[in-house]
Amino acid sequence: MFLIDTHTHLYLDKFNDDRDSVIQRAINQGVTKMLLPSIDSATFEEMMNLTKSYPNNCLPMIGLHPTSVQDNYEDELAFVEKELEKNKYIGIGEIGIDLYWDDTHSEQQQDAFRRQIQLAKKHALPIAIHTRDSFKEVYNILKKEATDELLGVFHCFTGNRSEAFKIMDIGFSMGIGGIITFKNSGLDEVCKSIPLDSIVLETDAPFLTPDPHRGKRNESSYLNIIAKKLAEILEMNMNDVVEKTSANAIKLFNLKV
């Protein structure tokens, strides 16, 4: 039994004091693959250093996070495009639209999202999508850009049944993380209506820590907690949930295991 954390930011400075221990704990807990979505050029070097240290465990994506879309976003997109020509990545992410923190650059975010989807199609890579207060905007762009070959995951899915079925309708997956363990999140009821074929697991470490560690730093070893909770909700054996969600991740990101 092995788990795949499809979304974790282990290269951020919150792990500077004990990064190796955090990764070893994850591996000891069966989390053998940790997929690293990019944020922007400022954190790129740290991400790549981590993948060089753990080439079999930590696998990079490349992309411009929507909250990093500023006036210089054209330069950032050029950086992404150049990296795609030079190096190998398992996906394009974390990309999308975030209208929660600041909608000043909403038009630029939509442009950056659209253009990175087009890069994903050009390079035949899946996308990891960030949506916050922006499902309508993200979905409208995806519908226009959708092809049978374009695949991806709605990272940190917390939507309703209607949104879940829209996501599945275009062949995309949903990343289920620590919020599934929160009381009154409502995500448990939504997950009961989502086929396991459409789910992958994630932590989004160091953010969105699951209970009972909520309020502390998240880490990839906690993926077991998320898998166990999902198994309880679906009334399934945990091993079956792990096996299926790992298989989904392997297929989506074309991973070698």
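Above is the first protein from milestone M3; the second protein from the same milestone is given next.
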Amino acid sequence: MDGNYSNTLDIRLSVADTVIFLDFPRILCLSRVIKRRFMYAGQSRPDMASDCPERLNWEFLKYVWSYPINRRPGIIKKLSQVTPNLQVIILRNPTEVREFLQNISHHSHLIN
């Protein structure tokens, strides 16, 4: 689930069995937003619908920069209050993501 739809977070948490929260530093997020803008200027990214060209404006940059102050605390609070049957995984940087994915891949080979 993506972090920018906090109005539906309670609904999604109520039906989820696992949450993976990418809690990356704001400077990394901001630099990736800017990089995407230049990589896909005027066109849609491969992970987006074909009619959604990459755009960048000050409102979105401000949203990304202020996310750790304005949005993150509420998400962390909700994640700390979930039921025990909901697994919460917080990954704080790309290295942790790579290690997590390698671990998942390793375990899936053991199961098959």
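Note on the second protein: The mean pLDDT is 89.
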